[in-house]
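This part of the workshop introduces the protein records we will be handling. To make this concrete, we reproduce a full record directly below:
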Amino acid sequence: MNERKLILASASPRRQFLLKEIGLEFTIDPPHIDESFPADMPIEKVPSYLAEKKAKALLPKIKDEVVLASDTVVILGKQILNKPSDRAEAIQMLTDLSGRTHTVITAVCLLSSTKSDCFEDRTEVTFKNLTNEEIEFYVDNYKPFDKAGAYGAQDWIGMVAIEKIVGSYFTVMGLPIHKVYEQLKLF
């Protein structure tokens, strides 16, 4: 693995955990950017657009380091389920996901002063039918307000609600670590 210093452009504890688990050392420097995107952008392109935007925000700060930025979206039908703003929105998102299959796309952008490599991974996730009590229990006890789609696959709801995953579990957690590992070796 390359010995260049790695900067994680994210405050996500899940992304930090996954990088540590494969033995990488890194510093954390989350960019504070506007995460809006063009209204006419196809929703499947949003995570790549935002991951690249996050990485480029740190470009003026880097010399020989490699920046790793990532963005995850949950797509149900033709709608992106972002991070919920409050309890009611989290409950609504989980109610919408209940008994249905949705797509999780996580995009990653690796960036240095001389090179850029952006890629993504998609996973299909199927939830069982959830009761209102299960949804409210999860929202009230796990506070999923920092998670796209109002859930974490590694949390209680993931353990009791996910019936099927087609793709990478780690993509659903927020970082397709298998692809990150391979791309960092090339970088």
